[in-house]
Amino acid sequence: MEALISIIIAVLTGCGVYLMLRGRTFPVIIGLTLLSYAVNLFIFVMGRLHSGAPAVIGAGDRYTDPLPQALVLTAIVISFAMTAFLLVLALRARAELGNDHVDGRPAAEDKAQ
How far apart are the C-alpha atoms of 67 and 19, rounded to whole Å? Predict the structure, then answer.
C-alpha cells in the first residue's frame, strides 16, 4: 500500500511540475493544483493514520495524530484561495494582453497564423 501511495504522489508531483513549466496560464494553474494535491497527500500519509482510532490521547491504546489532518485542511483552504486568485489573474492578463501566455508575448506558432 505504501508503494502505491508513493507512486501516486510521484505521478502527481511529476505531472504538476510538467504542467507548471508550460507556456500558457491554464496548464500552469492546473499544474499548481496537482502539486498542491501531491503535497496534501504527502502530509496526510506522513501522519500515519489509523482507521477507527480516536484522535484523543488516553482514550485508547492507539490514537491518530490530529496535526496532519489540521495541516491538510488548512492547506486545502489556502490552495483553493490561491487557485481562485490565479484564475482571476489569468483572466485579467488575457483581457489586457490578448493572449494567455505566461510571459505576455505570443508564441512563434501564434504569429504565423
Answer: 30
Q: Dig out the grid coordinates for 80 from the structure.
A: 483553493
The rounded distance, in Å, linking the Cα atoms of 10 and 38 is 8
pTM: predicted TM-score of the whole model, two decimal places: 0.78
- Tell me, what's the pLDDT at 70? 87
> Interior CA angle at 65 toward 68 and 48, to 5°?
75
Alpha carbon 69 to chain centroid, angstroms: 16
Distance CA(23)–CA(41), nearest Å, equals 27
Cell numbers for 103: 510571459
Contact 49/64 with Cβ under 8 angstroms?
yes
Cross-strand partners of 24: 101
> pLDDT for 7-52, tens place per residue?
999 999 999 999 999 988 899 999 999 999 999 999 888 877 667 7
